[in-house]
Write a structure and sequence with these properties.
It contains 22 helices and 29 strands. The protein is of the alpha/beta class. The mean pLDDT is 92. The protein binds zinc ion (2 copies) and fe (iii) ion (FE). The site of one zinc ion has 7 residues, from helix 3.
């Protein structure tokens, strides 16, 4: 039967590509289509979102315009292809059609979204029924990933299930023209979650607005408050109060690791840090990450917030509760993960009361449960661009495209530190939130929950589990115990693959993977690698010269150990002994250990930075991994590039294997330090010298193997001074350079690389 439509009626099919799933795209289209009295449908499919809209031509055109020009806050529309199709009369209004999955991993829930301007205006409006309400949200904003327990994503499947909507909320929820149409966490002061303040013993001392006021009083008078946020608890304190910050540091058991600050608005942020356009955009985006940026001289912040660092991590409020708290306190607040040292962030009320209660002067909490803990994401703004350091709240569980589709559904379990997991099915992969360092039992438990939850959420039943080569990683052990097909991916291959994957590339490239360490195929610890790689495999074509790693994990905590080891390799036992006398009384034992043939050896670039930092006198021991290297970079960054004199390293080629030997640089560093050359000049000379050697090695290898592209990955490339110098030199040699933007270069990106490698392997 052929149906005819009214004259002047048009029907258009819109094929929308980009980040358009799990970001509220379908309700957005639905709302506007209904408001424009159009008929048709919208659905998700393997390629993105498909829309068919029918009605008067101007109305159809208006919908097209809105899709292109004002999509939902988290959507990124890359392409809209429009075709006119024959109108029909079969449509009964406009409908959201069930997803036609076609075998792709689809995530039916979006990331958590910061409070939108409309909701914020209501919270600030004394005449609004949500005035001062800490849990206001709508279709464009509010918690999502952190509150979803099961799919499909509707209210009974979230932690809002226990809150029955009142009449006015229900009316908003049911009205297609309302901003809160189908907003699952919709709530108001009458029917929604409520705030309360508990004392250290767990007794509730205030509720509602009074709880907020009391918490503000505690904070501005130098106290510490545990605050239940979106993805977990923060520990909050006045960031301008040296005593409060020192107290928090002491109670949390955190020596030097920088604390993030929450500021009320952009004006306050600008008073603390230099923010370029990209940094401002990230800071104010609905994802609301922590943005680490150069601090202004004299920024009004206690020294203890980020000891010894030229940068501060800032974020803006992302829930109405944060907004009220930051505005009423009127000063930067330390907002650090609510945990002890490296435990996972507390997200359950009982756990928070037990673990955090004794550390604080009050616990500001509410009765909306957090289902999945999700730490703040962290981006670094340096040298005019942004770098993802931790991809978590506001980014997970946003899907990414695989360069090569997976033939079978898979789960990649990541590394040991900064763990994430990634599930993949068809052309799509979904990296998890930041899980943490699996060595801690609590983090391992969290890992198990996250992996299971992500699989359920994405409708993926893995047939293959992908893991690191390191047999002692808990993620590896988990994978091997799962009883399904396994695939091991070498750590640095995964780093390079993660960089390829985020650029949608398959290789081949020359991958430079510089990091702390990862297990090599030869059983030694690699960490300064040149790999000729594509997604399917790699060949190790170069590396840093190996040295002893005396004391294993102790060498990571105590950079002086690497300093004496490198000094011995570069300048001999006497010079090493002399340095040892200056650095640590245990140096003779460490040097004896380094001489033994059975001691573990490493090509780690991270440990090389540690060694130089210790020789220069920055520090002999660290309180968090990479601290010495971060401080060395900060020192180097104070020297204008033109003023630095690069040290020279040796680059040798033997039997087709390139070895970059930093020994001559270490020798020169030792001499210059002895001569009293300023540490900053030495740090800058080391950075530039290493960058020059790396770039010349890479140029040589790329030419030899006929590749025109170099990919930089591994945690060491978070170092912008190094990365920039390498990039400039490689570009000058006519090579294309791929660097990380959306996936962390550190081990947080390993599961992404593992998934990309496994997907490509499944196509063999
Ligand atoms: Zn909103
Ligand atoms: Zn209500
Ligand atoms: Fe690594």
């Amino acid at each position: 039967m052929v149906e005819t439509a009214a004259p002047g009626t048009e029907r258009r099919r819109l094929r929308v590509r980009g980040t358009v799933q799990g970001v509220g795209f379908r309700p957005f289209v639905y709302r506007h289509a209904v408001a424009l009295s159009l008929t048709g449908f919208v659905c998700n499919d393997a390629e993105g979102v498909l829309i068919e809209a029918q009605g008067p031509e101007p109305a159809v055109a208006e919908l097209c315009r809105m899709v292109l020009e004002c999509p939902p806050p988290l959507a990124r529309v890359d392409e809209v292809r429009t075709t006119t199709v024959a109108p029909g009369r079969g449509d009964d209004g406009f409908r959201i059609v069930e997803s036609t999955g076609h075998g792709a991993a689809s995530v039916p829930v979006s990331v958590d979204v910061a409070t939108c301007a409309a909701c914020l205006a209501e919270v600030d409006d004394p005449t609004d029924r949500r005035h001062g309400y800490p849990f206001a949200n709508c279709t464009d904003c509010g918690p999502r990933y952190t509150i979803v327990r099961s799919v499909p994503y509707d209210r009974p499947g979230t932690t809002m299930a226990g809150f029955a909507m009142c009449g006015p909320c229900r009316a908003e929820y049911d009205d297609p023209a309302d901003r809160r149409f189908h907003a699952q966490p919709n709530a108001c002061p009458v029917c929604g979650p409520r705030l309360r303040l508990a004392d250290a013993a767990g007794a509730v001392v205030a509720e509602g607005d009074a709880a907020l006021d009391r918490a503000v009083q505690v904070l501005v008078s130098g106290g510490t408050v545990a605050v239940k946020g979106v993805g977990g608890y923060h520990l909050a304190a006045d960031g301008t109060d040296a005593g409060a910050v020192a107290g928090l540091r002491r109670r949390k058991g955190r020596d030097d690791k920088p604390f993030a600050l929450m500021v009320a608005d952009v004006a306050q942020a600008r008073r603390l840090c230099h923010l370029d356009a990209a940094a401002l955009e990230a800071l104010t985006s609905p994802r609301r990450p922590v943005v680490v940026a150069p601090r202004r001289p004299g920024a009004p912040v206690a020294d203890g917030v980020a000891p010894g660092l030229p940068e501060l991590g800032l974020m803006l409020p992302y829930s109405p509760l944060h907004h009220l708290l930051a505005t009423r306190c009127g000063r930067p607040l330390v907002m650090t993960s609510g945990n002890l040292t490296d435990d996972p962030i507390a997200h359950l009320d009982e756990d928070a009361a037990a673990r955090l209660g004794p550390l604080v002067d009050g616990v500001l909490q509410h009765d909306r449960p957090i289902h999945i803990r999700c730490d703040d994401s962290v981006l670094r703004s340096a040298g005019g661009r942004l770098q993802m350091l931790r991809r978590s709240r506001g980014y997970a569980p946003e899907p990414m495209r695989l360069p090569v589709a997976a033939r079978r559904p898979l789960l990649a379990v990541g590394a040991e530190l900064k763990n994430t997991v990634t599930v993949a099915k068809g052309p799509t992969m979904v990296p998890s939130h930041h899980i943490g360092d699996l060595g801690h039992l609590a983090a391992y438990t969290s890992f198990l929950q996250a992996a299971a939850h992500l699989c359920r959420l994405c409708g993926v039943e893995p047939e293959v589990v992908v893991h690191d080569l390191h047999p002692e990683y808990l993620s590896t052990k988990f994978a091997l115990d799962l009883g399904i097909e396994t695939l091991a991916v070498q750590h640095h291959h995964a780093h390079v693959a993660s960089c390829l994957a985020e650029h949608g590339r398959t290789g081949p490239v020359l991958g430079i993977a510089f990091d702390g360490h990862g297990m090599g195929t030869d059983g030694t610890l690699w960490g300064g690698e040149f790999l000729l790689a594509d997604l399917r495999g790699f060949e190790r074509v170069g590396h840093l010269a190996p040295v002893a790693l005396p004391g294993g994990a102790a060498a990571v905590r105590e950079p002086w150990r690497m300093a004496v080891t490198w000094a011995r390799a570069a300048a001999g036992p006497d010079a090493a002994a002399a340095l040892g006398r200056r650095l640590d009384p245990r140096a003779p034992q460490v040097l004896a250990l380094a001489e033994r043939h059975d001691v573990l050896r490493t090509t780690s670039a991270g440990r090389l930075f540690d060694a130089v930092a210790a020789i220069v006198g920055i520090r002999g021991r660290v309180s968090y991994e990479g601290q010495a290297a971060v401080e060395l970079e900060a020192l180097a960054a104070t020297v204008p590039p033109g003023d630095a004199v690069p040290y020279r390293a040796d680059v040798d080629m033997t039997d087709g294997m390139l070895v970059l030997d930093p020994a001559p640089m270490i020798g020169a560093v030792l001499d210059d330090v002895a001569r009293g050359r300023p540490p900053a000049a030495v740090a800058a000379g080391f950075h530039l010298g290493l960058a020059a050697a790396v770039a010349s090695a890479a140029t040589d290898l790329a030419g030899r193997h006929g590749v025109g592209t170099v990919a930089l990955s591994g945690g060491v490339f978070q170092n912008v001074v190094l990365s920039r110098a390498v990039e400039v030199a490689l570009a000058g040699a006519g090579l294309e350079v791929l660097v990380h933007r959306h996936v962390p270069p550190n081990d947080g990106g390993i599961s992404v690389g593992q998934a990309a490698v496994a997907a490509a392997a499944s196509r063999r």
